[in-house]
Amino acid sequence: MANRSDPEQQNEHTLLLALFAIFLFGSPLTLWWAADYNPWYLPYLLWLLVILIGALLSGHYRRHDL
Amino acid sequence: MTYELEILFGASLLYLLILFLIAYVTDSGLIPNSWTSNSFVYILSLGVYATTWSYYGSVGFAQRQGFQFLTIYLGVTIAFLLTPVLLRPILQLTRDYQLTSPADLFAFRYRSQLAGALVALFMLIGTLPYIALQIRAVTASIRVLTQEVPPQLLALGFCAMLILFAIMFGARHVSPRDKHRGLVAAMAFESLVKLTVLLMVGLYAVFGVFSGPGDLSRWLVEHPEATRALYEPVREGPWFTLIFLSFGAAFLLPRQFHMTFAENISLRSIRTASWGFPLLLLLLNIAIPPILWAGESLQLEMDADYFVLGVTLAGGPTWLPVLTFIGGVSAASAMVIVTTLALSSMSMNHLLLPASYPDPKLDIYYWLLWGRRLLIAVIIMAGFVFYELLEHNEGLVQLGLISFVAVAQFLPGIIGVLYWRRANRIGFIAGLLGGISVWGITLLLPVLQASGILATSVDIPFLLRTTGQDQWEFATFWSLACNGVLFAFFSLIIPQTQEEQQAARACHSGNTMPVPLEGVVAAGSPEQFSQGLSSMLGRDAAQKEVEQALQDLDMPPDETRPSELRRLRERIERNLSGMIGPQMAHMVINQQLAMNRQAKTALAHSIRYIEERLEESRSQMQGLNADLDTLRRYHRQILLDLPLGVCAVAPDHTVVIWNLAQEVISGLESRQALGRKLNSLPPPWGEVLAGFALSQDEHVPHMGVELEGRKRWFNLHKATIPDPDLMVPEAGHRTGLVILLEDLTDLETLEAELAHSDRLASIGRLAAGVAHEIGNPVTGIASLAQNLREEKEPKVIEESIEAILQQTLRISGIVQSLMNYSRSGSVGAEYGTFNLREILDESANLVRLTRAGKQVECSISCPEEIMLVGDRQRLSQVLVNLLTNACDASFQGGKVEIFAFEEDNEVHLEVMDQGEGIPEEIQQSMFEPFFTTKQAGEGTGLGLSMAYKIIQEHSGRIEVDSIAGVGTRIAVRLPRHADQQNPVPQR
Questions:
Q1: Which end of chain B, N or C, is less packed with Cβ atoms under 10 Å?
Q2: Pairwise CA distance, residues B469 & B238, whole Å
Q3: What is the CATH number of domain B5-411?
């Protein structure tokens, strides 16, 4: 029982990913990627990155049948 | 390029007919259910989020606010990434308690009809502008394509089609358990159309307006202000506020709640949607910047909100603008249909039903269904009226965002639903009223002023600008601040009611409603349930609901067990909750199926009930709860697998635990025994267990029970189970019991075989003496018979015959003793009353036949009148064993004395020899099986252990007292009347 259960771990990973997304899109970090000289599709790439991590996590926990 | 109004009308009519066809084909089962249950269909159906605001308005939003248009989707992405901790718990709650709307959810959590009504009302007010926006987008798009103002009849016709579709495919069932698969399939198709058309327009913009990605890049290098215009507002605008608003809208907008939770078919789909839906939104938005730039490069003279259409009109294929228009119709119709369905359900359950409950004489299903259909029509028409009043005054985005800020007012309430157990209804209602008031003043009022609906002298937008904050930031912050502070303040100072506490626990503890131990349902059978409910639901509906609940629980219609009836009551409440809302259902059930609160239900009664709920919510448990559940399962498994029969009963002797061993022993499956009274169990168990439960004895050894014509033997034990709720048991208060059954039958058979072996071994040892003893009279008989040949004297002949007969009797006596002794003992031979002196004499006679027995003098001192009750043969085996050992231990010419007397209701029997005594270390193990000090072949080592066992079975005891060089005394104590002290009389 000392080991954390998988749902708990899933929740932690989910929260970490959400924090990462907030850090990316809701913090002063926006000043970095929203600089004028960046390609126009950069926000879409960052958005896609967050979605891909979410998909990987979801696939991982699907295999563990949660 | 312009289009005829008829073409556009015909195209949109054709599109809506296709939509009808898809829904009809799905509902009629022509499309397999596995298709509509597919996660990707679910994800596409969630695309209802993207309305005309996304479809047309995003380009205009991007032109005015740059990449801020992405915030409306990034917030949704974050909400869906949080599926395991945010959306899935809500989905589980809505499924468990059949909650179909945010109003249901809040009314259930805060146990308040007023909370539900307020939510429904605010949703309605907050969403009407949004519905109006959709109608306006469609008419505006027609104006763009036809270059003329479309007649109002067209908008009305569009609304009529939507009413028809929503009624036909969205309001087919009353109960949420019946999903509207046709609606889901149609909404998925609409999303597919929107996505395909937007991507096509995007591709046309890149390859048709520009000459490919290279040309677009060149254009962007030549026009750096285009990229700058996208990025600049991100650094300066209300970026985070908009993300926050769309986070709330992702699951609280009525249409989103309806498609995400109420129409969800599979729990697994939401996991795929956690990334699949954000991906769909990304694809829907990827084309927005190229379309904007295409419109700018073409220098379109129109509102950027309609660049999606304008770009296709500037020289593309002629079918593309019509297709684009259809995409817009698709976005608008999906939003209006689903929003209206959600609002109609909320308005019915939380506004109309509490205000005017139908007469029970009416068919309630019919009433609800047609009431909902009427509301659908009323809501869409109200949207139309709003459209008429608001026309041309606000941008698409503005109207959408007003709705977003309105639904954000439910976020504090959601915190109470999922995370803050102490939140209460007063806090929720106060917060909501405060938040909505600020929203009304800061956002709704200016819209109404601008439309001329409301005339005030205060210029609110001007006042807002003086604060220096963006309008959305200001409204969002102050409405939510007011809401949150009131919510927290009242929740902290006002205590919760018991009902609120229970509902809060249900929302927080893995969706398991705590089991109240107080009260049993006053109605005593499903039939009485029907009768009780019929005064509110009508006779037929009441019967149907009870039957449905019985079927859900796999319960027989003649069920009368109180704990099962309570489960039935709760199931009916859940089913009704889906139909008439949780608070109305709660009220109907409380009124019509009252609980007898005085009757306290013991914890034991609730065990099955609690376990069932724990099983249901197992997958939701985390942390300490999950550990405790694992521990519970471990302990339960121990009970179930215990090789002893375990039967636990509640204070009223209702069986609550019946383990596997008990099933094997009794031949009764647990489902046959659980919930029944002990005395109603099939024979013989009803009598045996109920009798034992009522008796004063805590242990009954060796009880014989006739099972299928065969006698079986059990040790019975019981212990009381104090109710943990009663710290000090009340006098006369009955408690639960646990009864253990130990099956002795196999052991008894084995022991009987061992005892028989021991007797046979004794007989082997007796054989030489017996042969000698029989040999003497046989020799005498032979001599007498020889003499008789010659003898003529009648008197001598007569004497000889007499002597032969005497010798024969002597032989018969010896043979009879041996036969008596050696016959095979059966388990549980009949007990009887017999004379002690008789068996003492018989045993002594047998032992005298042995070689050792002949060498000692054996004397018996026993009153003739001592009678014993027990197994005569087994007790004589004890005596033979004790006497044989005494003789073996004695020196030649020694003396073995047997004393028997009665004292204090006990019969004392002592066998004393004058042998060399038994060393102390041997005394400790002399009663163990197979322990012997004799030479191999002289003893089996079973004699004394059998003697010990037999005396124990007769509730007696055996003691050894030995002094080296003096002799040994074996003392046996037996109850004088074994039948009065030993509860074996059933033998």
A1: N
A2: 9
A3: 1.20.1730.10
- Nearest CB partner across the interface for B84, out of A14, A21, A22: A14
Residue B404 CA to chain centroid, in angstroms?
A: 37
In chain B, % helix, strand, coil (3-state, to 5) comes to 65, 10, 25
Average pLDDT, chain B: 82
Q: Which residues of B touch A52 (CB under 8 A)?
A: 275
For B661-679, how does the pLDDT look when each residue is reduced to its tens digit (9 = 90+)?
888 888 888 877 887 888 8
pLDDT of residue B876: 82
pLDDT for the residue numbered A66: 45
The two tokens of residue B742 are 């130990």
SS3 B517: coil
| Per-residue pLDDT reduced to its tens digit, B796-811 | 788 888 888 887 887 8
Angstrom distance (rounded) from CA B863 to CA B882: 20
Could you give the CA distance from residue B48 to residue B255 in angstroms, rounded to a whole number? 7
A42: exposed, middle or buried (Cβ count in 10 Å: 0-12, 13-18, 19+) = middle
Give the model's pLDDT for residue B698: 83
In this model, does residue B393 exceed pLDDT 50?
Answer: yes
Mutate which of A6, A36, A42, A57 to disrupt the B interface (most B C-beta within 10 Å)? A36
CB B766 within 8 A of CB B850: yes
Q: Which two tokens stand for residue B109?
A: 């959590």
Question: For the structural domain made of B749-981, what CATH number should be given?
Answer: 3.30.565.10
From CA B80, how far away is CA B86, in angstroms rounded?
A: 8
Closest partner CB to A54 (pick from B224, B275, B622)? B275
Q: d(Cα B108, Cα B96) in Å, to the nearest integer?
A: 12
> What is the reported pLDDT for B437?
92
The H or E element containing residue B435 is: helix B425-439
Give the Cα separation of B167 and B179 in Å (integer). 14
pLDDT digits (tens, 9 = 90+) for B837-870: 888 888 888 788 777 777 888 888 888 888 888 8
Residues near B428 by Cβ (< 8 Å), separated by ≥ 6?
Answer: B106, B110, B112, B115, B412, B413, B416, B487, B491
| A32-47 tens-digit pLDDT | 888 888 899 999 999 9
Q: Look up the CATH architecture of domain B623-742.
A: 2-Layer Sandwich (3.30)
pLDDT tens readout for residues B710-735: 778 888 888 887 766 554 555 555 67
User: What residue in A sits closest to B67 (Cα-Cα)?
Assistant: A43
Pairwise CB contact (< 8 Å): B243 & A21: no
Select from B234, B215, B544 the least CA-distant residue to B364.
B544
Tell me the domain boundaries of chain B: 5-411, 519-599, 623-742, 749-981
H-helix or E-strand spanning residue B703:
strand B699-707
Which distant-in-sequence residues (6+ apart) come within 8 Å of B306 by Cβ? B56, B60, B140, B141, B144
Distance (Å) from the C-alpha of residue B635 to the closest C-alpha of chain A? 15
Q: What dihedral do alpha carbons B607, B610, B616, B619 form, nearest 10°? A: -100
- Residue B320: both structure tokens together: 């593309």
Mutate to test the interface with A, among B58, B74, B218 (most CBs of A within 10 A): B74
